[in-house]
Design goal:
heterodimer; A: alpha/beta; Oxidized Rhodanese, domain 1; 6-stranded mixed beta sheet; 5-stranded parallel beta sheet; 21% strand; B: alpha+beta
Amino acid sequence: MCLCSLSRRAQRREFRRVSGGPLGQALNLGLSDGDQVRVEVWRLEAEEVEAKLAGGSVLIDLRPPLAFACEHIEGSVNLQFSHADLADRADLVLPSDISVIMCAGTDATARSGAEILSVAGLGVDGFLGGGLSEWVRAGRACTSTPVISVDDLNASNGEFQVIDARESYEYRYGHISGARLLSSMEAWQRVEDLPPTGRYAVVCGEQVRSSLVASILRRAGRDALVVGGGMADWLERGFPVEKAGY
Amino acid sequence: MSDITETKVLDVTGLLCPMPVVKASKEMRSLEAGEVLKILATDRGAVADFPAWAEDTGNELLTQNEEDGVFVFFIKKGAEA
C-alpha cells in the first residue's frame, strides 16, 4: 500500500470517546462521569461496503420506513434511528454475532448509529460515507420494497399471507384474520420457517417493525411487502379483526 | 385534564415500538397492586400497544389522551399482574 493511500485511510479513521454522560447513560453502560470508552468509526467508500457485504457483513439502514421502502441497498435491514433506544432495539432484534455497516440520510446520523451500536457491543465495520447518494454515484444499484395500502390488502382476497410483526399481546388483542405472528424480536431466527414461495404482507402497529421484518424476509429471499399505515390504518377504516389464538 | 394521581411517571417519549411497552413492563414490576403508572409516549403505535398490553397482563388502563403530540396513559397495576 502506498503512503498516500495510507494517509487517506488514516484521515478517514475517526475515534470518538463516549463518556458516562447522556450517551453512556442512554446505552445503560453503567458508566460514571469519569469513565470513557474508545469507539473506532470508519467512513467507508461504496467499493469497501460492497466487499464487506460480500464477506457477510449486514447493512443497517437507519432511515425511516417510507424512505427505506422507496430506495435502499439490496439485503439491507431497516432499523430506524433513534438516539434514545437504538441500542435497545438492536439488542432485541439482531443477533449479536454479526458485523454491521451503517447507512443513513446523513453521515452524522450514520456515525452516531455506528458509535451507539459499537459501544453496545455489536461488531461495527463502519458507515457508508455519503449514504445512498454516493452508492448510486459509484454506479451501484438500489432496490425498493412495495407498500400495499390497507384498502388494497382488504380487497386482495387472500393473495397474501399476512405476517403480524407485533408482539404476542398485541396480536391477541386484535389481528387481521388469517395473520401469522412473527414478532420483530423473533424474525431473524424464524425467517426460515416461512415457505420461500409465499407472498407476504407484513403489518405492525404503524410501520417501524413491519419495515424491519419485511427487510429481514426480503434479505432471506422472501417476496415481502409492507402494509402502509399498519393496524392503525386498518382499524381506522373499520376493517374486521380477530381476537386471541395463534 | 385528569384527576388521577399517579404513583410513578415513566417518560418514553422519543422511543420507538416496541420499547415503550418494554420499558413500561419493567417499570410496572416496581409497583404494588392498585398503584398507578403514568406513561408519556410519542410513538403513534403506543395508542394501540398500551391497551393491548394492559388487557393481556391484567393491568387496568384507566385513561388515555393526547396532549400536544404526547400520548398520556394512566395504568393501574392489577392484583394478579
